[in-house]
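User: structure tokens for this one?
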Amino acid sequence: MPTTDHRDLIAGFTATGRNHPYLAFTVNSLCNLDCVFCKPRCMTDYGHKDRPLTAADYAAIAAEAGAWQVKKAHCSGGEPTIRADILDVIAGLADGLGVGAAIGMTSHGNLRRGLSVEQFQQAGLTYLNVSLHSLHPERSAEIMGGGDPRQARDTIDEALARGLKVKINCVLQRTYLDDAFAVAALAKDLPIAVRLIELQNIGPAQALFGAEFIAEAEIRERLQDWFAGAGEVSREGLGVRSPGRYLKPEGWAGSIGFISNSSCATCSDANRIKVTPSGVARPCILHNRDILLKPHLAAGTLPDAFAHLFRAMLERNSNDAWQGFHYVDYDLRWDRMERPEGAPVRSLLPIVQTGLTVSSCARRPAPGKGQ
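Assistant:
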């Protein structure tokens, strides 16, 4: 349990006005699809290079996080549903964080045989993010290297019928722009949040970026008829942390938002503690404050690990490189991605690398330190 000093850290974070930290677990690096902008099997660290955390480990981490007033945990991958023990992982997180916690998962929606939305809900899942980039089976297969969007739609419909909150993640590519708009149009009739995600110039997507990148500003221009007179939906109501605006066109059941880490990247309300499959916790991309959780699990010193994580997130506000904008130039999901060494601060990348300027994001309030 947190000591008096640790409770001071919790109070210090609360005083910043930022959303309380949540746990974002990458539960595996394996995927049975092969999206063109991800291509996990091309990554040097693909597969289980180190022994991953067990369901019991996740339960213990969540129990300690609950003592630090953490009330949200999210699982992603890879594709988390191909973990044989994924239901146990979800149940451990739900039990650890306790009543009222938000437990979520990102999946491509093609659940492996033997799994159902009902089972995930019974295990404790409260919301589901589905990666869906086209409703057309052939074009979807071109983008995702397999899978069936009709099965993903069935998963979405079942989740909604069972009362789960549902968000759809759709990566924007110029070649498949009409497909993205068709996915976004699902929000006309369904109470979902469709997040249109800018392609990032990292990893395998670098080969596509020049031809396929399309910025949020252009999408807004193309969809101006939808957004004219649209009302804004609060992030609290949607259960999201990203700083983009979520708009609900008049008469629609759902909303559309943007994740624009290439044209308008911001960490004004960053509160994610990323945990890799083998238990490396990463509180901030601008600080090299990674910490190995397995030794703390073994020694029973998880309170010290969480003190480190909270302190690292608080001290981010004194980081000279942090000005509210950043570019994610390397992937923090897995275990063997190269991390900068020798310096405590990750230098800010020049904005001009994308040909964009901070002024292009002026419609969003510039975050001040302490947010």
